[in-house]
Amino acid sequence: MIRRATTALLLATFVVVGWPTTATAGTFDVTSCLHSPTGAANNAWVPSASDATVHTSSTCSPGMTADPAPVVETLVGLSAGSTWGVTTTNGAEARWRLTAPAGTSITRIRYHRYSGRWDTTYHMPFLRSAEGTILDADCTILPTEAGGNDYWCHRGAASPNGGSAYADVATNTTSLDFGIGCYGACPSTAWNYRTWASMYGSTVTITENTPPTLNASSTGAWGDAGWLTGNQTVTVASSTDTTGIKRLRLLVDGAATQTVTPACNYTYVVPCANQSNVAMALDTTQLADGQRTLTLESTDAANNTTTATQTVWLDNTPPTAPSLLTPSVTTTDGQAVFRWAQVSAGAGSPITKVRWQLCDQQGGACGQASDLAADATQTSLTSLADGSHTVRVWAVDEAGHVGAVSTAQVTQSTPAPPATPDPPASTPPPSTPPAGGTVVAPKPPTVTVTQTPTDQQRPATRPGQESTSREPGSTTKRQQTLEDPELRLLSARRRGRHIVLKGKVDDYLDTMKVTVTVRQGKRSRRYRRTTNGARWTVRVPVPKGRGRIVVTVSVAKGDGYRAASVTRRVTS
């Protein structure tokens, strides 16, 4: 009788708790009932009954009705059987079906079951593939008592005829059916179910070999072609798969920096959800400056992985303070020159300019800062007021970092003017002659007059030119201060394989030799060009490589003017 099997079946409850769900790459396991983590979950097997002469029990019920009394067996599982007291229709089936997701297949099932029939050869329990193949046919249903006609078969618990720990069946199909069917004359009596099949725990292996799709967002760090600093974000715009996404990772140079693990439930045949707009944090301050490789990685429920990579540039280090700055200068003519070593960008972004500023050491007020070229190594001061001053010099890089400041001292002291000589004595008035004498007028002083040449007689000089002519009768050279030319870089654009530079300079510089420095990352090249006229255009080759391009146009000191330079970023 079926009731006699109840005690033996209880042993299965203790056998299947903690069932292992290991899966290799390309596979995952779907668990049900006592094989599930909770011991009472079924979201994979779907019940159906062809007519009222057969039935299925509720999903993973804590007790399954095995007899019409009813008698409840304290099992957790799925049960199908013929209806008590009713003759079963020929061809009727009561079943549970598990269907694999599209593009996948079922390659294995491990399950514990209890199947039997009463006094008939036409009721048959089965485990069947989508192709109609009956699986696990080696479970022979044997009589339980001498002379009796109660037949059953166990998988996974002690039974009158013995039994293995569980059924383990290999297959390759898209669905499985477990249940009972009537394949002939299936009469019934008022005493018992005619056929029954109970599965109280299953682990079904799903095989999938298709990797997920992965799309990164162009916003944030992934799409930024510039230098990255501080906290950034890399966003997974979408990642989809037939079985869902179980893990997203962000790696920098192959090392994982953040992992997102969406919740997955392996009691479903599609255990995980697809993902969209998932933000991954990237703290660049924890990474070394320079070029880095970002990798986004998406893994589906079956451990198939898709990756996407992007190259980025990081810079979290400001430029160092200019070194070897002239420590101090003392001057009497209001002019001074300060020099320093060229500032290095290191592994970070290139230097875009050097800045300097003059501060009054007494009152502490500082003047407006002035910009120099990225490779500048000196600056000249003019018209210094008397007193002590502080010169501040620092660099700025392409990432916008302001570097540390170096300082130097300059003291201007104008010498006192020479003392004013005493005026010449006045001519005394003529003395009164003695009576009868002659008055003698005093002799006037001798005056020497030196004629100064007219403007037409002076040698011609250009504006700001240093003159070496002397005035007639003078041994002192006359000097004028050199002037700064108006050097302007109007545009710097990339045209095919060349960079076209357009600029303007003072009209009086008819012919000018310029040096064009092209920088890209740590690499730089220099080109010398000659321009004619106030407005000019020069062309230089585009460097090979990736990254922003910065150009510096400079003119050396010439006849009447100082050196000058201007820096600009190249645009497309």
Q: What is the level-2 CATH architecture name of the largest domain?
A: Sandwich
Contiguous low-pLDDT stretches (5 residues minimum) are 1-23, 64-74, 141-151, 155-164, 444-480
Discrete helix count: 1
Helical amount:
under 10%
Distance between the termini: 88 Å
Class of secondary structure makeup: mainly beta
CATH class of the largest domain equals Mainly Beta
Gyration radius (Cα, Å) is 49 Å
- CATH topology name of the largest domain, in short, is Jelly Rolls
Average pLDDT metric = 78
Please outline the major beta sheet: 8 strands, antiparallel
Please report which band the strand proportion falls in: under 5%, 5-15%, 15-25%, 25-35%, 35-45% or over 45%.
35-45%
Question: Can you put this structure into words, describing what you see?
Answer:
By secondary structure, this protein is mainly beta. It has 4 domains: 2-207, Jelly Rolls, CATH 2.60.120; 213-314, Immunoglobulin-like (Sandwich); 328-412, Sandwich (Immunoglobulin-like), CATH 2.60.40; 488-569, Immunoglobulins (Immunoglobulin-like, Sandwich). The chain has 1 helix and 37 strands. Strands 1, 3, 6, 8, 11, 12, 13 and 15 form an 8-stranded antiparallel sheet that branches. It has a 5-stranded antiparallel sheet with strand order 2-7-14-9-10, with no helix packed on it. It has a 5-stranded mixed sheet with strand order 17-23-22-19-20, with no helix packed on it. A hairpin with a 4-residue loop joins strand 22 (290-300) and strand 23 (305-314).
